Fold this sequence. Notes:
The protein is α+β, with helices and mostly antiparallel strands. The protein has a domain at 48-157: 3-Layer(bab) Sandwich (minor pseudopilin epsh fold). Helix content is 31%, strand content 26%. The protein has a five-stranded antiparallel sheet with strand order 3-2-1-5-6, covered by helices on one side. A four-stranded antiparallel sheet has the order 4-7-8-9, with helices on one face. Strand 7 and strand 8 (140-146) form a beta hairpin. It is a single-pass membrane protein.
Amino acid sequence: MKENTLSNIDDRQRGMTLIELLAALLIAGMLTGWGVGQWRHHQQTLRLEHTAQQLLAFLLRLQADANWRNRTTLLWFKNGTPWCLGGGVPPPDCASAEGSVFSPSYRDVVLSGYTDKEIGFYGLRNTAQAGHILLSNESGGLRLVLSARGRLRLCSEGLRIRGIAPC
Length: 167
C-alpha cells in the first residue's frame, strides 16, 4: 500500500497552470470592481441620508424656537455650490449668512427642489406653512415634507433609501 505523500506526486502536477492563475485573477478583479462600485454607491447613500437627517434636526430646532418665542420664522433658500438655507432675513449669499443657517457637510448632496411659496413655522399653536425640500445626489433623492400642522418627515423619491419609506 502506497502512501499518498507529496514526494509520490508527479512533478508535472505541482502548482497552478497559467490559465488557472489568469482565471483566478480575472474573477478577483471582477469582484473587486463590483465591490468598489457598490461601496461608492453605499457611501453616497449614507451622505444623502446624513445630510437629510441633519436638515431635519435643524428645521426641528427652528420650529421649537419659533414655538418657544411665539413668533413666525420663514425659511430662505440659496442655491449654488455650496447651497444653504436658514430662517429670518435672507442674506445675499451663503458666505455672508448669519444666525440660523444650514449648509451641507457633503458637496455631492444638492438642493434639487423646494416649494416655491413661503415655507416657515408659526409660533401660534406650533403650526407651519406646508411645503417640501428635495435633496439628491447620484444615489437618489430624499424629500423633507413639512405639513400645515407642523409635522416634519422624510420620505424617499422612488426607491426606499436606508429604511426611509417612499413618498
